[in-house]
């Protein structure tokens, strides 16, 4: 099958469109013919092996898995002996750690859910990583009537987080760059801060929950925008890939600092399971959440899709069509 694969860590130049073996499936896995795959900053981290701490998970000297991509939407072609939930022909979405920028992917059935019927494959492929991360940022933290700030509101996670926080009944302020305000308001944001003109602490200690996907602001600045008992959720590491931990040192410091303050300061780790996908399907099918697609690239053009995402300013999600 055709796939986008790499043998060494590096820039998007190391990626090759080439023939690789179609994956074989285990008893608890499903073979999916991939129709669309989502691009997210995690793809860039796996490709470059930066920040270096990521290599503990992805391979110390070279990528353990050659094929890139994790989120997918497609059609089941084969199921393992222990799989009851799916059959060939089912349209599904989910994540695979074996690579999804490929014609086929092997996926544990517990990381798949039926594709929301109202979505195209491209829209569905936008959901499994960014939508799930946004859901897990909001769920259990945001209550109806609260004031919520989403930093990076036009991005992959942020465009879902704004919509999900609104669905939970919050008043939402989206933070984005110039030119994105209209998009962020169209997602349901009640107010928008253009970060090139104003800082996020513009209104003082105003927000019950701040979901930060941009990853570049000091904790002290974010805390100034948070109420005394507010919750800060750090989803992102930004574009600092230097050193061992890149922009993720805030995630490590936040829980320690949280022990000495009434504010809750938390990192966010997402779990891409069927349960979260089904919750998102309900939000999507009730019309409360719609994936926003910035651009869709053909498989052979995946390196350019990653280059575009790495510039750091997508309007919604970047997708690979297969
Ligand atoms: N915790 C987890 O489990 C998890 C899961 C997935 C991803 N992540 C991480 O979360 C982060 C965001 O992912 P994503 O998919 O949402 O990325 P993305 O689609 O690239 O979006 C990033 C957003 O950041 C905004 N931004 C850039 N500079 C900014 C600044 N100075 N101030 C405010 N906003 C700024 C951009 O908005 P403008 O265009 O308006 O500038 C862009 O929309 C990444 O670091 C990723 O690795 C974490």
UniProtKB/TrEMBL annotation:
Coiled-coil blocks: none
Transmembrane segments: none
MF GO annotations: oxidoreductase activity
UniProt xrefs under InterPro entries: ADH-like_N, ER, GroES-like_sf, NAD(P)-bd_dom_sf, YIM1/Zinc_Alcohol_DH_Fams
Enoyl reductase (ER) domain location: 10-320
Cited Pfam families: ADH_N, ADH_zinc_N_2
Name used for this protein in its record: NADPH:quinone reductase
